[in-house]
Amino acid sequence: QLQLVESGGGLVQPGGSLTLSCAAPGRTLDVYVIGWFRQAPGKEREAVACINSSESTTIYVDSVRGRSTISRDSAKNTVYLQMIGLKPEDTAVYSCAARPFVQTACTRNANLYNSWGQGTQVTVSS
Asked: What share of the chain is helix, strand, coil (3-state, %, to 5)?
C-alpha cells in the first residue's frame, strides 16, 4: 500500500478554481491507477476522476465534466485534480486513492482502491 498525501484544498468563492495534489512521499505514482473521490456532508462518496498508468483519464461526475482535469506530473511524482468554475455543490472532502500495483484500469468502485489519503476539504462559498 501507498501512503498518499493530498493538498490544495481550501475555501474558494463560486466560480473560482483550485488544484488538488496527490503525492506519495518516496514512492513513484507513475505505475499506479490514481482516482480522486469526494464526499459531501450527508452524501455517499463518489468517484470524480481517474488516471491510469497509460495516462488515460476518465471523469465520472457529469456535473464536473468540462470543469475538471486530472493529470500526472511524473517529475514531481504527483497527480493533480484541477477544478475551475467551482460551485457550492462541489463542496466536499476530496481524497485520492490508488489501486493495487498490478491493476491498470480505472474504476469508479472505491472498494477496488487499497491506498487512501487523509482527504482535503474543499469549500465553495461566498
From this structure: 5, 40, 55
